[in-house]
Amino acid sequence: MSAAAATAFQSSLCISSQKPSFSPTNSQEPNTHLPSKPKSLLHKHPLYSSAHHNLSLQIKEKILCLEIMGIDSGKALSLNPSLHTTSLDSLNSIISFLQSKGIHQKDFPRIFGMCPRILTSNIKTELGPVFSFLSQDLNVPENNYRKVINKCPRLLTSSVRDQLKPALFYLQRLGFKDLEALAYQDPVLLVSSVEHTLIPKLKFLESIGFSTSEAKSMVLRCPGLFTFSIENNYKPKFEYFKEEMNGDLEDLKAFPQFFAFSLEKRIKPRHIEAITSGVKLPLANMLKSTDDEFKELLRNNGPNS
User: Is Transcription regulation one of the keywords UniProt gives this record (predicted)?
Assistant: First the structure.
């Protein structure tokens, strides 16, 4: 099916359509008792014909509507059971609303794939306030809504009152003043729990020896520190840093991005190669350089250079 045909087909499906669902009673009656209706693309589509015969027409249409948009309908229905009962009319309203905010049809597979709950959100009480938050609190112009939402679709499933505003307030208290950076580069921080995600990461940095002001300075320089797992990232990397690299906290304070590099694929191999070559390099030089640049650094700083 061509892109144009798919678009037209999607539009024909995701619209208000007051078609009766087949109840167990009338589903067993002869076809002559059912309201006559012309065959459409829906009936001829392989997704429709392969669907279980006991599914109602509306469920089949919803499944096909999701698949045509490039969304895994099985995953979406599993993660958001409310889709089973929502109407096509409601789905169409969500799609139309997002399109009115500048979201493109080609964005839907990723957005809905990550957050299928959006498909059953309330436009007035849930989705609308998010766009108002983007505009009023983050100063995002309307023509940039798409950029922010594509960066972090979870914004659309976050409560403005209970999540977004408290997170923004906390981050601003820490020293995050650049609203543009928060909107376009680090919106994931806004959907992170202050109590269960942001504060514990800061406390961990303090627990390994940094002062509160030093820890704050580090996350301001490298906001990604708020997104790393304490158990799977911080602890093993810090353990290797202290025990194998004999590193000093001053090194991490100067280069907090250390935690953003893979321990097995970057940190260990580079460190071992540097030690084997008898070279000690600053963390930034050792980890940020390309492979060729790293080899050049080893040659230029080796014992025989």
Answer: yes
Under 8 Å between Cβ of 114 and 154:
yes
What percentage of the chain reaches a pLDDT higher than 90?
68
Q: Flag the least confident range among 34-43, 73-82, 233-242, 289-298.
A: 34-43
Does a structural domain hold residue 303? no
Per-position b or e across 233-264, b if 16+ CB within 10 A of its CB: bbeebbebbeeebebeeeebbebbbbbbeebe
The whole-angstrom separation of Cα 3 and Cα 59 is 24
pTM: 0.77
Same domain, 53 and 101: yes
225 located within any domain: no
Residue ranges making up the domain that contains 134: 121-192
Q: How many CB atoms lie within 10 A of CB 123?
A: 14
How do residues 123-157 score in pLDDT, each as one tens digit? 999 999 999 999 999 999 999 999 999 999 999 99
- Separation of alpha carbons 87 and 91, rounded Å: 6
Rounded CA gap, 5 and 27, in Å?
31
- According to DSSP, residue 37 is labeled -
Same domain, 9 and 70: yes
